[in-house]
Amino acid sequence: MLTAERMSMWRGRYRLAADGRPVAVWDPSWWRTGGDFEVDGRRFQVRANGWGTKYRMLDEMGNEVALIEKAGRKQWTVQAGGRTYEFRRASFWGNQQELLADGAKVGSLRRTSAWSGAIEADLPGMPLPVQICVVGVQIAIWQAQQSAASG
Questions:
Q1: Is the distance from CB of 61 to CB of 51 less than 8 angstroms?
Q2: What is the pLDDT of residues 37-95, one digit of tens each?
Q3: CATH top-level class of 2-150
């Protein structure tokens, strides 16, 4: 289980832990939609296209590690390591995303607290850096939705 807790109400940084062990900090980008993180000594950058529907996760050499397409839509995908992971939003108004395998739910990602912004992700079979990327993209989408609603 991967969890993410907001470190401060002001900055938008999140501390991520895998099964209770700290593994990374999601640091949102100031200039572009996305963020950066480091896990196991490797730095990664996640950036969105101009519409915020496609995100690329790059390693420190600029190589694409993962591609998230149709982010924020009812159904979306993550391509990484030669695999395609399929997700769907559980309901129109809800904040839960479901990881699917052959159309059946095998994992999930959900905000556990609207107030604190805490998140839980159970994404079996997905490499840890890709899990962090998926959580980071959801953080970016939820923050953009909050900004649009309050603006």
A1: no
A2: 999 999 999 999 988 889 999 999 999 999 999 988 899 999 999 999 999 998 877 77
A3: alpha beta
pTM of the predicted protein model:
0.91
Please say whether the beta carbons of 108 and 98 come within 8 A.
yes
State the pLDDT at residue 31: 67
Token pair of 12 as six digits: 């938008």
Q: Are 132 and 2 in contact (CB under 8 A)?
A: yes
The closest alpha carbon to 82, from 39, 125, 34, belongs to 125
Q: Among 72, 66, 65, 64, which Cα is nearest to 85's?
A: 66
Beta bridge pairs of residue 77: 69, 86
Domain residue spans in the chain?
A: 2-150
| Angle, CA 78 vertex, CA 76 and CA 81 arms, to 5° | 160
Angle (CA) 110-57-54 rounded to 5° is: 70
